[in-house]
Amino acid sequence: MAAPSNGTGNLVDEFEESFQHCLNVFTKQEASTCVEKEEVKVEVERFIDLARQMEASFLQKRFLLSAMKPELLVKEENNDLKCELQRKEELLRRHYDKISQWHNLLADLQGHTVYNKCQQQTTPQPMQQAASPMQQPCSVQQSVQAQQMAAAAAAQQVALQQQAMQQQQVRPPLPPAYPNTVTRR
Question: Exposed e or buried b for every residue in 85-97, given b needs 16+ CB within 10 A?
Fold first, then answer.
């Protein structure tokens, strides 16, 4: 095991050198397997030891910083929470976008389905007419009404989406720790 280093800069340099030695052992062109295994083992143990020392050094400095300036930890946690909140709001926005796309697609499909049914009924089919002579074909007025209904449904959907987006912008988000609570104004 290596002796602990005095300074963090020196420890980082030793860590980097140890890493380079480990890489050099693996990239050597010599074919002596017995020496190579022992050399690899020694270099890897030194590398792991230096990594542990560096981790301990960082933890000590972090502990000292938290003891001397606790407000920095609070600021860091606050920044982490803000970043998480932004990430989640972006995720929600993407979900709302996808939902609106699917709603539009569904409204289009429903409008086309009504229109297509009317079109299918107006096209002459010999077997269908022979089977059910009482069936009445859709009139032009009925197909226009179906198109108007589909357009009205799509317009209503867009209005609802815009209203939901406005409400989302006005209403502050719930705190992440209490998702089931309701804020009252």
Answer: eeeeeeeeeeeee
